[in-house]
Amino acid sequence: MTARVVLTTAPGSVDGLEAALADVDVRIVRHPLLTFAPPASWTALDAALAASWDAIVLTSPRAADVLAARAPHLAKHRSVWAAGDASAAPLRARGWTVHAADGGTATQSAATSLALAMLAAGVRGRVLHVAGDPHRTELAERLRDSGCTVDIVIAYRSVPASDVELSAVLLRAHLLVVGSPLLVRALAAQGDDVLGPAWVALGATTAETIRAAGLPLAAVADDPSAPGVALAIRRALHLTSLD
After folding, report:
1. Rounded to whole angstroms, how far apart are CA atoms 96 and 108?
2. How many other CB atoms are there within 10 angstroms of residue 11's CB atom?
3. pLDDT for 218-237, tens place per residue?
4. CA-CA distance, 68 to 76, in Å (whole number)?
5. Residue scoring higher pLDDT (91 or 195)
6. Shortest CA distance to 84 belongs to which of 107, 132, 117?
7. φ and ψ at 146, to 5 degrees?
8. Is the pLDDT of residue 130 over 70?
9. Helix or strand holding residue 58 (H, E)
10. Strands 217-221 and 175-178: what pairing?
11. Which of 125, 146, 150, 119 has its CA nearest to residue 136?
């Protein structure tokens, strides 16, 4: 039986996943379930980007896109940090110098890995986190625990799909690949439908949210690359009956 694997992440993400699973009897269905909207006002972000910081940090490619668009003058800022190469890529493509952490693992979030890398490199002082809404708090907490002052400014808002669309996706998936705790919570609100597919988490924080909701977590991807996600899907298929 061909397994229907529904990838719920943003368009263009996990590029090459189909090729990485070419030898497996799966059908990859790309069905993004989050859209993104600007903040209610740009005032706070623009004011923050006009101030002086010892480091600027971001944890998503979307935040990087917003940073480049709103503050191109910061391209020569000496301490810009990103949670992995995917988050750094939009800025590097525009000529920015960006330090990137190695990303998260199945047991440690990308945000925590980034905070530890920054501290190991000697980052201290005032740090600006250009974030989405909602966002995880562990990066700021780690940096503050080490004496940094961290201000968080919202660059975009994440908006889940409608309940009708979420329920329809749950009914058609054998494996559901999810990378957002916000989306997990929205899907978990769909009642008994959530017990239909097995769940594959992208990252430790999403995995924790799935477990906390009592959902059938089958595998956790150590990183969001095509090889990392493909390996998690293979593990999930090995453990999951599709009958």
Report:
1. 27
2. 6
3. 999 988 889 999 999 999 99
4. 11
5. 91
6. 117
7. -100, 15
8. yes
9. strand 55-58
10. unpaired
11. 150
Give me the pLDDT at residue 106, please.
52
pLDDT band at 17, cuts 50/70/90? very high
Number of other CB atoms surrounding residue 129 within 10 Å: 26
Contact 50, 72 (CB under 8 A): no
Continuous segment of H or E residues that includes residue 167? helix 163-172
Tell me how far apart the alpha carbons of residues 134 and 132 are, in angstroms, rounded to a whole number.
Answer: 6
Pairing of β 34-37 and β 149-160: antiparallel
Cα–Cα distance between 135 and 137 in angstroms, integer?
Answer: 7
Per-residue pLDDT tens digits for 85-113:
888 999 999 999 999 987 655 556 778 88
User: What is the amino acid identity at position 70?
Assistant: R
Spatial distance between the Cα atoms of 236 and 214, rounded to a whole number of angstroms: 17
Return the structure tokens found at 195. Answer: 């017990």
CB proximity list for 14: less than 8 A, separation 6 or greater: 7, 177, 224, 225, 226, 229
Report the C-alpha gap between 218 and 241 in whole angstroms.
11
